[in-house]
Structure formats: C-alpha cells, structure tokens
Specification:
With about 140 residues, the chain is mainly alpha-helical. It contains five helices and three strands. The longest helix is centred in the C-terminal third of the chain and has 35 residues. The relative contact order is 0.16.
C-alpha cells in the first residue's frame, strides 16, 4: 500500500510598485521604498518584491524626521494593509483558571483563528484588486 501525502508549499508573498501605488503611495514613494530591494521575480512586466522586505523598508522610511504629514499618513495606511497581508496570528494566552471554562477557551481560540484567516484572505483580495487596478492605469 502506497501512502501518498500531499505537501503544500507556501510561496512568498510579493508586492509590486503598481500595487503600492494602488494602496495609496505616490509613484515617488513606491520607487523610493523599493529602489534598494532586489526584485524576486516578475509579475507580467512588473518587478515583484518580498512583502516582508517592503514592510521593513516602509518602517525604516517612516523613521525619517522630514516627511510631510500627508505622506506619513498614507505610508502608515499602506503599512497597515501590508501587515494584514502577512496574516500573522497572535497567540492569546488562555489560562486554565478556576473561573475559565476550557470549552469557552477552545472556542475563543477557534474564533481568533477564523478572524485571522478572514483578514488574511481579505488582504489577499485587496492585493489582487491593486494588481488589476495597476494594470488598468498603464
């Protein structure tokens, strides 16, 4: 009997400059944020960068003291959208105390995971929309 186990491979999450522009950055900021990054691949004709690298570059850029308030706000909003795409799950400490019921704790963990999955899928849909919108503006 042969036991076939399927393995899922998680591909790295990517961002293009056109997606960054559609999320709300200016063309200048999209270029500035990605100029020191090496593109991982191409998506059609656009260079694609690792999501984690772009997030790091935006955080570093926001540390600069001379950024206009409007630019700072738009970059923070884009950073929030990109962080949603990561879909990181935060562990909530549920302790088995005398007043905490184990079934309620388990249901709360399942709810937290379902909410995180929903947020991650919504962020991926937003990325798809940004890609489509970026293609239509060219």
């Amino acid at each position: 009997m042969i036991n076939h186990q399927t393995k899922t491979i998680k591909l790295p999450k990517l961002v293009t400059r056109s997606q960054l522009k559609d999320y709300g950055t200016s063309s200048y900021h999209a270029r500035t944020i990605t100029k020191n990054l090496l593109p991982v691949t191409k998506q059609k004709r656009a260079n694609a960068y690792l999501l984690n690298d772009v997030i790091t570059c935006i955080k570093d850029y926001l540390k600069r003291p001379r950024i206009r308030n409007k630019s700072r706000e738009s970059l923070r909003q884009v950073l929030e959208i990109l962080l949603e795409r990561l879909g990181n799950v935060l562990e909530v400490p549920f302790h088995q105390e005398s007043n905490t019921h184990s079934e309620i704790s388990q249901l709360a963990k399942q709810l937290t995971k379902a909410m995180s999955d929903t947020d991650r899928h919504l962020a991926e849909l937003k990325a798809t929309v940004a890609t489509i919108n970026g293609k239509s503006t060219k």
